[in-house]
Amino acid sequence: MRRFAAVSWIAIPLAGVLALSGCSSVKTGGDELQIVANPAAARPAVSPAVTVKPAGQVLATGSVSAVAVDEKTSTLVVAVSQPPSLRLYDLNALASAPVNMPLYGKVSRLTVTPGRVEIAEPDQGVVQQLTLPDRKLTETKTGGEPAASLAFGADRLVAMGAGKDIQVLPPGGAARTIAGQLYSADDVLDTGDGVVVLDRLRTAVFSVDVAAGKVNEGLRAGDGAANAVTDSYGRVLVTDVRAGALIAFSASPLIMRQRYPVPGGAYGIAYDAKRSLAWVTLTERNEVAGFDVRGGEPVEKYRFPTVRQPDSVGVDEKSGRVIVGSAAGEGTQVIQP
């Protein structure tokens, strides 16, 4: 069982309404989580031109939609938007040419378990599974627009985006669906203490009872929940791009434990379990910051200049290296703190 770190409530002012143009601030239908009439998913803040040289090494990968690291095989996986493909780098030999693997469409999310990468391609309605080191791709058609896929025991949990549900895909046989309360199912996370789904439209998180097939209680996740990751303490860490914050939720029960201000367009997030560091990209500033999340509130330990539009981030826990992907076509950055 995972232990919980000592946590405390961090008070910062809450905006009364979401900063959405053309939207009312009136709650509708008694829904405590929806605070605007026409919610819209948070987007990354647009980055300015780079004025400071990016830290570390920059790999010429083009426009990046997601990055991930498989520790088991020391493989850096970079999802490139045009043409849609994966580039696989040996983390022990980054100067070597990567292996290129074509995909059906742009990747929205890469999720790794040792020796296995889940790949969501919403525009093509498929999730693919890449096994390593054999580099075998296996596809599954979902009948919708999958936003994220997660290995969950022998099954896979697929967050179906605008489909407003989660598909449970067994190794064989028919899939089953978990629905209810969601406006969009944008990511699904297993904390070890419970499963949580991120809903960007409602800027909220919900607990999920997979065995019972139910979406349970939900909580607001700031003014513009963008991305989420699990940490070593049974929590889900969420970036709030509109209010500029890092928010921590326990999963069982679902409780907001921390809300810490992180100005600058907090968007991408990755977690280094070996060092208890949450790495958050700040797209308004072309920066990435590392926060120690072991205590009662996050403590900033590192901050580095990045490539332009640093929408995605990953971490190599063996070495502590941070991987930042540019959505503006300026490559993939590798930083050694």
The gist of it:
By secondary structure, the protein is mainly β.
Task: Characterise the protein shown here.
- Strand 10 and strand 11 form a beta hairpin.
- The strands form seven sheets. Strands 1-28-27-26 form a four-stranded antiparallel β-sheet, with no helix packed on it. It has a four-stranded antiparallel β-sheet with strand order 2-3-4-5, with no helix packed on it. The chain has a four-stranded antiparallel β-sheet with strand order 6-7-8-9, with no helix packed on it.
- The chain has one domain: YVTN repeat-like/Quinoprotein amine dehydrogenase (Methylamine Dehydrogenase, Chain H).
- The two termini are 30 Å apart.
- The chain contains no helices and 28 strands.
- The protein has 337 residues and is mainly β.
- Keywords: Signal.
- This is Lipoprotein.
- InterPro entries: WD40/YVTN_repeat-like_dom_sf (IPR015943).
- It comes from Amycolatopsis balhimycina DSM 5908.
Key structural traits:
Methylamine Dehydrogenase, Chain H, mainly beta, four-stranded antiparallel sheet, 28 strands, 337 residues
